[in-house]
Fold:
Amino acid sequence: MNQWYPTSPPAEEKRPVAYAAPRGAASATAISSAAEPAHPNTSQEPCACGGKGYVFGEDGYCPCAAGAARQTEEQSWVVERIWGEARIPAELAERRIAGWPGDAAVRDYLLTWVSAWQGNHGPSLVLTGRARSGKTGLVLGLAYALVEQVVAERTPRFSLRFVTAYDLMAALSTWQGREERFRQYLECDLLILDDLGREPAWDSNVANLTRVVMHRYNHQLPLMITSNLSFGEIEARFGRDGDAVTGRLREMARGFVVEGFGELSGEAKAKANRL
Structure:
């Protein structure tokens, strides 16, 4: 049984949080925050769990209303824990896909990126386009939906990191503890690299970013990338490695590349400017 052992469970009792769906329940789909129990106990007979929602020695939650409530509470807690560890700035952390104001067709297409994931493995995603078009808000909304899916599907562990390209290069500018800091971004299950192209175009920065892309490509670790640059401009920025870098990004994305993103209008454009 896959289990998650949080440092402090949300309920009053100290026990391992079962990171599982109710017995007999189907796997969760793309954006499910919590699976429903397959056969809720709606009778007046006392349940074996005594209203606690679980039975020790059993695989998963009790198939009763208390089990469903327990599962929802604990899965929500795990989702928020993963999200909190991603180091997303507070002003961006509340972005959700339901609140994204852009083209519904684009949103629905990109939601298939979430469902393309199996456990903690899936395609990368690259959005390029004009500034202030809502790219970061959309990416974070998709990432949150993915975390919900990962938790509901009982993936044993999942790690997510968010960083702007500028901040990543700043973090790597000092040598002391540099490799340890680097590994956080090289080895997490999903890295959100925001605003690629805003960092200074120094040779050291180009080399570090090339290492990030190549390492994650070689180890099949996906990226979510936003950039105001076109793919041609990204390729030029990486110099002699540009063709290799952009080629690998396209390969990792498996078609989930949106170029020239941000053609919004009217009220949608006004909302996007607040993202």
Observations:
- The two ends are 40 Å apart (CA to CA).
- Residues 65-85 form the longest helix (21 residues).
- The longest strand covers residues 190-196.
